[in-house]
């Protein structure tokens, strides 16, 4: 996981764009937390090839508040390189959206 960009707005609100790529146990924990099926521990060979990746635009109302997701897009499969362009496009779109939100808050 990595934070791609952060905006601190004049009203104290923060926005951020996050990108992640998860495999193996991290992917299983993510799947379990979202209420989805995940691989059994004895299916290691298949599990290592599978991934889940995505980008999200998140906000929080103050520095001590919890982050909430405004938009999220994710993919899963076995060939991450074949969808890398799609992930970059989604990331660019969320960066643009965050920039517009930050400018709008500045005008209020």
Roughly what is the average pLDDT, rounded to an integer? 88
Q: What is the rounded Rg? A: 16 Å
Q: Which residue ranges are poorly predicted, with pLDDT under 50 across at least 5 consecutive positions?
A: none
The biggest beta sheet reads: 4 strands, antiparallel
Q: DSSP strand (E) fraction?
A: 25-35%
Order of helices and strands: EEHHEEH
Report the span from N to C terminus.
32 Å
Class of secondary structure makeup: alpha+beta
Q: How many β-strand stretches?
A: 4
The total of helices stands at 3
How does this model look, in words?
Helices cover about 35% and strands about 35% of the residues. It has a four-stranded antiparallel sheet. The chain is globular and about 45 Å long. It starts with a strand and ends with a helix. The relative contact order is 0.22.
Features:
3 helices, 37% helix, 4-stranded antiparallel β-sheet, alpha+beta, single chain, 34% strand, 108 residues
Write the layout of secondary structure elements.
Blueprint: E1 2-8, E2 14-23, H1 24-33, H2 44-49, E3 51-60, E4 68-77, H3 84-107
Antiparallel strand pairs: 1-2, 2-3, 3-4
Short structural summary:
The protein is of the alpha+beta class. The chain has 3 helices and 4 strands. Strand 3 (51-60) and strand 4 form a beta hairpin.
């Amino acid at each position: 996981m990595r934070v791609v960009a952060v905006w601190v707005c004049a009203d104290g609100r923060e926005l951020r764009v996050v990108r992640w790529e998860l495999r193996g146990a991290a992917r299983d924990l993510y799947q379990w937390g979202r209420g989805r099926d995940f691989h059994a521990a004895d299916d290691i060979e298949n599990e290592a090839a599978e991934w889940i990746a995505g980008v999200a635009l998140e906000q929080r109302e103050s520095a001590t508040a919890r982050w909430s997701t405004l938009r999220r897009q994710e993919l899963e499969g076995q060939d991450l390189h074949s969808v890398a362009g799609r992930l970059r496009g989604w990331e660019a779109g969320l960066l643009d959206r965050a920039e517009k939100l930050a400018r709008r808050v500045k005008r209020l």
